[in-house]
Amino acid sequence: MRKIIKNTLFVILFSVLIMFAAFFVYQHFYASNDKNLSGTWTASLDMTEQAAVTALGWLQDIEAVSVSMQDMEAHMQGLTVTLHLTMEQTDRSGGTFASYVQPESYAACRQAAYEAFASAFRELLAKRLRMAGYAGGTDEESVEALVTETFGMSTTAYLMSCVPSLLPPLEDLQSQYDGSGTYETSEGILTRQFDSGQLVRTKKENYIRKDSTLILTGAADSAHYGYFADHYPVIYTLQQPQAEQ
What we know:
With 245 residues, this protein is α+β, with helices and mostly antiparallel strands. The protein has one domain (38-240). The chain is built from 8 helices and 8 strands, in the order H-E-H-H-E-E-H-H-H-H-E-E-E-E-H-E. Strands 1-2-3-4-5-6-7-8 form an 8-stranded antiparallel β-barrel. A hairpin with a 6-residue loop joins strand 5 and strand 6. The model is unreliable at 1-32 (pLDDT under 50).
């Protein structure tokens, strides 16, 4: 009887050890994957709201025809600036990183913002001309020709010359996002120590890693890191995993 009990306990204990071993193997090789942030990530900062707010404020200052925020945002869609973030995990909970704003995407976004505003401006100008009893054409081409004749430049060029910048300065975005250094992860918080770039600083952000998506949900402490970091999550997509060593 004792032998049977002893064998039974041995089998139970052996089974428990196997389950624990399987659990730790899973944690090491699978569950930890979501904590491994190694790879090349990209994200897009949505500039639509800021561009629309700035454009709307300028129109209100010059007492243009009434236009709503929704109208402005309808014209300004897909205005994004690309961020790149490369991370390489060197130990269980940390590694090195490098991040930067893509200048080409900023220039393209700025141009697109003013072209979108020019389209809205031509519509508003046409409405005001009709209200004033203007006898000439008020279609888009006619209004564009009128602006060019009046100001000696296209509508887009005119707005670029007299409207406050529709986007935050590139330098501001670079000071917020550009740099390299080391990082650590702990309990859903990503801590990055910048040791290059315009400012040497530590930045803490809440993060969620799910498959090929990395979401940074803003500053995890009270420090101010800029409008976008404080108000909007930055959603990165994994473009290229780091090759395993």
